[in-house]
Amino acid sequence: MKYCARCGSEYRDDIEQCSDCPGNPRLVDVGEMRSRGLPLPHELDKRVFVRAGTTDNPLMVEVFVELLQETDIPVLVRAGRSGVVDKLTTGNLLPWWEILVPEEQQERAAALIERERAQEAATTDEAVRAAEDEERETEQSAAPPSTL
Ligand SMILES: [Zn+2]
User: Fold this and answer.
1) 65-124, pLDDT tens digit by residue?
2) Would residue 144 count as lying in a domain?
3) 7 in any annotated domain
4) What is the pLDDT of residues 46-72, one digit of tens each?
5) How far does residue 121's CA lie from ligand 1's centre (Å)?
6) Count of domains in the chain?
7) Measuring CA to CA, which residue among 99, 96, 93, 57 is closest to residue 76?
8) Residues near ion ligand 1 (Cβ under 5 Å)
9) How far lies 101's CA from each of 35, 119, 127, in Å?
10) How far does residue 132's CA lie from ligand 1's centre (Å)?
């Protein structure tokens, strides 16, 4: 069996990548799961993993996972889909992801995620403002048409 170190899903040996996670991470073997402190699917019930945050932005999933891994917090990502999904409605439903961590680390992880989210929001605002400023400057300082 192979496992996704991102969401903890179990896969057959002939499967290489996780289909649930953003970026389709490469699957790992049981030893790799152990060394990262991650539970196997059948152990997940016994180890309590709780929600530290959610996001609907696949880029932020990557950011949060890396952030928590750097801090040595085991992290699992659960792909969420609201309601019943069938082929007809899939296009209308935005996917979202739950960031799961061990219960005893939940407080720390949630704080890290919130801080990162705030930083990200600030950066995005700045980027938007900078782009608007640039646009305005470009309009004002538009060079007169060259006479050929
Ligand atoms: Zn996965």
Assistant:
1) 999 999 999 999 988 765 555 555 555 566 789 999 999 999 999 999 999 999 988 888
2) no
3) yes
4) 889 999 999 988 899 999 999 999 999
5) 26
6) 1
7) 99
8) 4, 6-7, 18, 20-21
9) 16, 21, 31
10) 38
